[in-house]
Amino acid sequence: QVQLVESGGGLVRPGGSLRLSCVASGSIFNIYTMGWYRQAPGKQRELVAVIKDDNSLNYAESVKGRFIISGDTSYNTVSLQMNSLNPEDTAVYYCTAHGAGVNDYGEVGDYDFWGQGTQVTVSS
Q: Which of 19, 54, 65, 88 is the most buried (most CB within 10 A)?
């Protein structure tokens, strides 16, 4: 199986910063994209930022200029530096990787793998 382990969430005041990190391990052989989604209470999960294996980046409009994604799909790691946080950024942040690996049923193929999520709360 594949494990994605996130770290770095927490409580921060408006205008503050946090850094999230994620490492993928286990039976994942080749990562094509790796990144972050988030889900706020009562809302659908949404893209925050992703990095592709060609090092191209994609950001949600709401975080452009404030968040910076970095990582290396060859080393199965991705980080998200979040600056100028505001209460609208409060959500559970999920690390995700799309790549070739083994799913929970032991099947080999291209899948989306997800971490357990880490809570980010922006509040005064």
A: 19
Asked whether 13 and 122 are in contact (CB, 8 A), the reply is yes
Task: Name residue 114's amino acid.
Answer: W
d(CA 104, CA 92): 23
Token duo for residue 7: 């770290």
Q: Residues 93, 5: contact at Cβ < 8 Å?
A: no
Give me the phi and psi of 10, to 5 degrees please: 155, -165
pLDDT tens digits, one per residue of 37-62 = 999 999 999 999 999 988 899 999 99
What is d(CA 124, CA 115) in angstroms, rounded to the nearest whole number?
Answer: 28
Closest CA to 89 of 23, 4, 6, 14: 14
